[in-house]
Every structure is written in C-alpha cells, then in structure tokens.
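From the shared-data thread, chain only:
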Amino acid sequence: MATTTKTKTPSKLDALEKLLARKNGVSIAEMMTATGWQQHSVRGAMAGALKKRGLTITSQKVADVRRYHAEVSA
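Structure, as tokens:
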C-alpha cells in the first residue's frame, strides 16, 4: 500500500512574503503581477495579514519607484 503525503500549495500571501524578503525588495506593480490582485488588495494584505504573520514592512523610494521589504519582527 502506497502512502501519500499532502503538501500545502503555497498561497498568494506566501508568494508576497517571499517577494518581500528579496534583497532589493519588491514594488507594488510586481506584487500585483505575482498575485493577480489589484493595488488596494496588495496594500491591504501588507497592512493586515502579513503584519499578523509577524513581518515588519518598510519602504524606500528608489529611482522614483517605491520598494517594499519585510523582516520578521522580534
């Protein structure tokens, strides 16, 4: 009898968390493309669900584009 294992499919929030962890961060447009969400949904996810996961999200304007980066809060 073969055993099957269930692996959790990464969610869109998981994808956002991975993008935010990149060294150079990520722009809103890149997050919108990765998730298929609208701008207000991406911002809402950062302000709500991702902060509840214990992330501290910072932003910096680089070459007229705002880049977001997240680190795990202490």
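DSSP finds four helices and two strands in the chain.
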